[in-house]
Specification:
mainly beta; Jelly Rolls; eight-stranded antiparallel sheet
Amino acid sequence: MEPIVFNQLSNILPSGTAHSQGQKFVFLANKDSQTNLTQFAYGSFAPGEGSGLHTHQTMEEFFFIVKGEGLCVCGAERYQLGKGAFLRIPAGVLHSLEASAVEGLEFVYFGVAI
């Protein structure tokens, strides 16, 4: 049986994102679970920061916006992000996630390998 994992945001050191902007607090990484979860994290972008356009061929991403405003571009679609918004990005879709120039963006994030 896998161990139960318990942690609190205040106990986790922030790390940089794979996109060189923003920060994340990783609660659970792939190595910590025998599932297809790649990561469960709390992330943030400061005003004007973002991920830039990119794609993941073998991972779906899920975002729940906790605070702030921003924009997500997924293929030809544009989504205005704000508190309470949820977004699923399928594997292989070109996308970006950007905080507004005025207000940062905070979100809960799941990555799942397919």
